[in-house]
Amino acid sequence: xxxxxxxxxxxxxxxxxxxxxxxxxxxxxxxxxxxxxxxxxxxxxxxxxxxxxxxxxxxxxxxxxxxxxxxxxxxxxxxxxxxxxxxxxxxxxxxxxxxxxxxxxxxxxxxxxxxxxxxxxxxxxxxxxxxxxxxxxxxxxxxxxxxxxxxxxxxxxxxxxxxxxxxxxxxxxxxxxxxxxxxxxxxxxxxxxxxxxxxxxxxxxxxxxxxxxxxxxxxxxxxxxxxxxxxxxxxxxxxxxxxxxxxxxxxxxxxxxxxxxxxxxxxxxxxxxxxxxxxxxxxxxxxxxxxxxxxxxx
Length: 298
Known about the structure:
seven-stranded mixed beta sheet, 12% strand, 12 helices, single chain, 2-enoyl-CoA Hydratase, Chain A, domain 1, 7 strands
């Protein structure tokens, strides 16, 4: 039996997420807390440290298939990426390129790079991205899950879109800049970070699924997420000039179609949704009925 998690991913710790998603007794952790590998920068700044530096990595099985897995700890600095945190993710991806598991599952939950070690964190993001492309070149599908309380922002938001697949829940969010960052740089008139409805319809799971930036929309239930993940095992998306050019063409078409939209409601209306204001309040089944009729490339 697996370790059941009845509260869903959003309320869980990184370790609870990993143990609930994997088959029972299959998790083999790399660099566990007992190894005491954590950021030297935080310690030198007098900041608290975490013995796993806020990310759990290792391998296990889902449905009997060997996969590599990583989960960011939302309770430690909001899952933010520093030098060691990033190095652990890079190492996992480099190992995947060599060992070729059925997939790499990335349970991201982060506000981005740690300001306390910003330069090291930014370098780490570039190293993660390079390792991602090497893993994809080796034919290993990379699957991101966005279901946590922090969302997926910053550099991790960028590299998430470099992966093969994104699985997202209604509570998940995905963007380059977070709401507070946008407001601080552009003003509340541009984006009110306190307007939760605005945040979710701009960056949330329903919107990302409707415009096909997330390939699967699921309930925040462990078994639903496991089922979503398994459908992508051993199914890498080719990464070559043709696929890159096709993606660029698609993004150009999106800009031409929606470039003047001031709100996600405008985009939903242009997609053919008769009552876009109803989308945020729809339950899962009602939303999926509409979404799968109109979503981009659906």
